[in-house]
Design a protein that fits this description.
With about 100 residues, the chain is mostly helical. The chain has five helices and no strands. It has a domain at about 1-15 and about 40-80. It has helices spanning about 1-20, 30-35, 35-40, 45-80, 80-95. The relative contact order is 0.12. The mean pLDDT is about 75.
C-alpha cells in the first residue's frame, strides 16, 4: 500500500509539472498556443481550468503525503514491535525517576 502511494505521488508530481509548464505567467498559456481552443472555450475559461487543475493536483499530492506518513508509521511499528516496547519501557522508567 505504501509503494502504491509513493507511485501515485510521483505520477501526480509529473502531472503537476506538466500543467504548470502549460500555463503562461502572463495569462496566455494553453489558450494562446492553440487557436482552436480559443474558439471553443475562450481564453479565460482555459486559464480557469488549468488553475483549478493545478490546485486539485497539489491538494491530491498533499493528502497522499499525509497518507504515506501514516502508513509508514504503521509499517515501522509492525516491523519492529520490540523496539516500540523498549521505547515505551524507557519512557515509563524515565518518568518514574523524576
Amino acid at each position: 500500500m505504501f509503494t502504491l502511494c509513493v507511485v501515485l505521488i510521483i505520477i501526480a508530481c509529473l502531472v503537476l509539472a506538466f500543467v504548470v509548464l502549460i500555463q503562461n505567467s502572463k495569462g496566455g498559456g494553453l489558450a494562446s498556443n492553440f487557436a482552436s481552443s480559443n474558439q471553443i472555450m475562450g481564453v479565460r475559461k482555459t486559464a480557469d481550468v488549468l488553475e483549478k487543475t493545478t490546485w486539485g493536483v497539489a491538494t491530491f499530492i498533499m493528502v497522499l503525503c499525509f497518507v504515506c506518513a501514516f502508513l509508514s508509521k504503521n509499517e515501522v511499528n509492525s516491523l519492529h514491535p520490540q523496539q516500540t516496547q523498549v521505547e515505551q519501557t524507557q519512557q515509563q522508567t524515565d518518568g518514574g525517576e523524576e
